[in-house]
Amino acid sequence: MSPLARRFAVPLLVAFLACAWTYQALGGFGPAQGSRGGGGPPAAPPSLPRHQHGYSAPQAATNAVYGYGLLGAGTVTQSSATRITDDKGTGQVGRTAASSGGVAGVVWSSMARLDTLPHVLIRFAIEQTTSVRAFVGLASNGTSGPSSVASSAVFNTTDELVPTRNVGLYFSAALEHTNWHWIEDAGTAAFVDTGVAPAANKVYFLEIQVLSATSIVLTLRDEDFVSLATRTVTASLASTDVFSLVLGVEATSASARGVVFYGASLSLENTRP
Question: Does pTM surpass 0.85?
Answer without folding.
Answer: no
